[in-house]
Amino acid sequence: MSVNTSSAPSLAPPVSRQGIIGWMRASLFSSPLNTLLTVLVAWLLLMVVPAMIEWLFIRANFDATTAQECRASGGACWAFIVEKHRLILFGIYPYDEQWRPLLATIILIAVIVCSCVRWFWKPSLLLIWTVALVAVAVLMWGGVFGLTHVENDRWGGLPLTLILATFGIAFAFPLGLLLALGRRSNMPAVKALCVIYIELIRGVPLISLLFMSSVMLPLFLPEGFSIDKLLRAQIAIILFAAAYIAETVRGGLQAIPKGQYEGADSIGLSYWQQMRKIILPQALKVVIPPLVGIFISLFKDTSLVVIIGIFDLTQAAKAAVADAAWRGFSAEAYLFIAFIYFIFCFSISRYSQSLEKHLQTGHQR
After folding, report:
1. pTM over the 0.90 mark
2. Residue 190 class from Cβ within 10 Å (0-12 exposed, 13-18 middle, 19+ buried)?
């Protein structure tokens, strides 16, 4: 005897298997080990978070005029940041002229934002970048239009960090593409040179390259000829980042099916036409996440120029902490610059995720 079950109503999943309860059971309490880790993390958060909130906000002092008043509050001394924010952001740039690096920073951020908007992805974007970089150079150096000339030895803070990162990415990316193509070239000499360069640069830390550019490079230059210290640091950053970009792009090139190359050959495209129209667009889509990781690391690694005496954001924070009248508030200073780095790096990461989603063509699984 058969039983007709076609008319039986479908039952909803148990409450313990859906919603927030189901998620907690599956993610936080799915095993004894996960349960133990969840309890430990919850205990740690309960111990740390309330104390951090109390120190950062509840007992913090925002309007003290002396260090003694800040210390008496028992919380974070954000009044120190209010007092020293111009030194941290602009370094030792002349105080009365600090509107110039502020405007230069706004211009750089604006042109970077424009570059992230698809509507601006036109040939005119190159003109926008050219005008913006000329404006930044005029503002920072001066010497024209009635602006006081300021040597780049006095540049510092956030504008200098943005300049090093922007020029580093702008020049390292095309150089990395050429190195990646050269490493996959069929010409032995070109391939050997690219392999030696990539492996040599990737085999040493950025600090070593900065020291070599600052100390050793001048020894090999002709007498009477010198390269500015800031330019030497910029070149070292570009060369370092290009080697990592080259290996990342090479991985993307290897991920492209051989049929794409054969199809490009079959329609009579030249090598550079194949790369520009077919191969590189697909390869770069695949490697967007690691490329963005390199860009974020490069932005943070600009802080290493402090070891050769360049007054970047980190060095400016150290100078602010060294003030005898406000000594002892290094935690606030470094939290402030950490927040600045986080804003930029998080923005880059979120944009890369949206770009990857927009350009998704089936490479994700």
Report:
1. no
2. middle
